Amino acid sequence: MIQPLPARKIGPLTVSAIGLGCMNLSHAYLPRPDPVQAERLLLHALDAGVTFFDTASIYGFGANEELLGRILMSRRSKFILASKCVLGEVDGRRGLDGSPAAIERAVEDSLRRLRTDHIDLYYMHRLDPKVPVEESVGALVRAVEAGKIGTIGLSEMSASTVRAAHRVHPVAAVQTEYSPWTRNPEIAVLDACSELGIGFVAFSPLGRGLLAGGVGGKGVPEGDLRADMPRFQSPHLERNLALFARLAGLAEAAGCTPAQLCLAWLLSKGDHIVPIPGTTSIVHLDEDLAAVGVQLSPDQLAAVDRLFHIGAVSGARYGASAQAQVGTEMWPGEEMA
């Protein structure tokens, strides 16, 4: 039985200690759930105590926001809603537009698709290098002043960009990939968030499924977003699956699943950190949420750190085109693509 989820603060917002990343209900990973399965998953999450739901305009080019709007908005007062702009559809393709005019349009489009008049946390999904971050944040400030969004977030940005944005307006949350196999936030962003009172939202906390046992030796299907990521391509995949096998051994010794071990490890890193695993399975969702009850000893936490020491994971986390849109710091010698 799932125990009640403890709460954590991200900026001024109070959310469940584990949220739900909704991307793979409409976007990126295969196979995708049918509409009935997606609806059941979202409603089960809400009933199980999840109070933090994360979407974005790019997910399914609006389809994910429409899904949440259709399924969850009758219970709008029960959860914190987060979405994102800047990374979206530009001339029919995935692209960046951080201009104030584009952000203003994106806010209106998100509100319409989500069937709400207020988004609690609205992120810049990526930094548009053609637009100073101060100008993009200025557009979000105006949306806050108009009551259309509650707080401002940043995604996949460096500590220096976070500081520059925070000087314009308080940033509530920074969202970046963080898990035992992606530890780039430990370079500078986590420290910046702690110093400035900013919450940290960890996306892909289970290594895009590999650290939960969701990827086998055959890799992922053609057309799956991960197929273009070097870590999921041979020979890197085989090396990373060997790391997962060792992680599974640590989890067995700790009396939990590998997914729970990863989430408990993340929760231990700071009270301002909230992981948002995604799943299409109610069984896996319940497994993830049960991680709040997993207590790891210092030795068990250290064993995860040692297994995933910097340089242990094989392959870059993004392909070249996707990496070009990411502003987070990289470790010395880290593979670019």
Characterize the structure shown.
It is a single chain. With 337 residues, the protein is of the alpha/beta class. It is built from eleven helices and twelve strands. The radius of gyration is 19 Å and the shape is globular.
Low-pLDDT segments? none
What's the shape? globular
Radius of gyration: 19 Å
So, CATH architecture of the domain at 8-213 and 266-294?
Alpha-Beta Barrel
Q: How large is the count of helical segments?
A: 11
Task: Characterize the quaternary organization of these chains.
Answer: single chain
Q: Under CATH, the topology of the domain at 8-213 and 266-294 is which?
A: TIM Barrel
Sheet with the most strands: spatial strand order: 3-4-5-8-9-10-11-12
Give the amount of beta strand, in percent.
15-25%
Termini separation (Å)? 42 Å
String of helices and strands: EEEHEHEEEHEHEHEHEHHEHHH
Number of strands: 12
Q: What is the arithmetic mean of pLDDT? A: 96
Main sheet attributes: strand count, strand direction, barrel closure: 8 strands, parallel
Highest-level CATH class of the domain at 8-213 and 266-294: Alpha Beta
What structural class is derived from the secondary structure elements?
alpha/beta
Keyphrases for this structure?
337 residues, alpha/beta, TIM Barrel, eight-stranded parallel beta sheet, two-stranded antiparallel sheet, 12 strands, 16% strand, globular
What secondary-structure arrangement, pairings included, does this model have?
Layout: E1 7-10, E2 13-16, E3 20-21, H1 35-47, E4 52-54, H2 63-72, E5 80-85, E6 87-90, E7 93-96, H3 100-114, E8 119-124, H4 133-145, E9 149-155, H5 159-168, E10 171-177, H6 189-196, E11 199-203, H7 236-254, H8 258-267, E12 273-275, H9 282-289, H10 298-307, H11 320-323
Parallel strand pairs: 3-4, 4-5, 5-8, 8-9, 9-10, 10-11, 11-12
Antiparallel strand pairs: 1-2, 6-7
GO molecular function: oxidoreductase activity
Keywords: Oxidoreductase
Pfam families: Aldo_ket_red
